[in-house]
Amino acid sequence: NIAAAQHxxxxxxxxxxxxxxxxxxxxxxxxxxxxxxxxxxxxxxxxPETHLQRVLAAVLDAPPGAVASHQTAAALWNLPGYDxxxxxxxxxxxxxxxxxxxxxxxxxxxxxxxxxxxLRHGIPTTTPTLTMFHLCAVLHPxxxxxxxxxxxxxxxxxxxxxxxxxxRIGARGRNGxxxxxxxxxxxxxDPVPE
Length: 194
Prior knowledge:
By secondary structure, the protein is α+β, with helices and mostly antiparallel strands.
């Protein structure tokens, strides 16, 4: 059952792929089996309402290929100072500008390295290394440094990994590149003491 594997949420694309058309979907909503969370995302009534459910709903509400990223990914990796109750951030692998959806803020990352996406609690999520690259683009430098220190102390990433990723995807003028490069050079492979 798709709902059981996805924290009780699914989107219309997934339902259509399983033969549930608009008419049947409307009937399921009217009977109280499915609750619409947005025009394209539904929650199975009776499934536990959790923070993970809310984050996956945000990913499913975004355009195809979306993954949890930025502050939301940091919260999924249990980094201090980030909370799944905060606004959900997702990234899709194409070009565009930041866009507000009903359930999330959508960021675009042209040429996003898909080998830096993993499942975390059943949710497509950026790796800690790509999460750091994204956070370097949106956070104050002191907060980015603190977050990176926590991530390396917990051995979620290393300076060498961040430097390697920045070399692959960083570009002159791209937000986060300079800060990521500095963090990568500062730490190398040595974890920060807890």
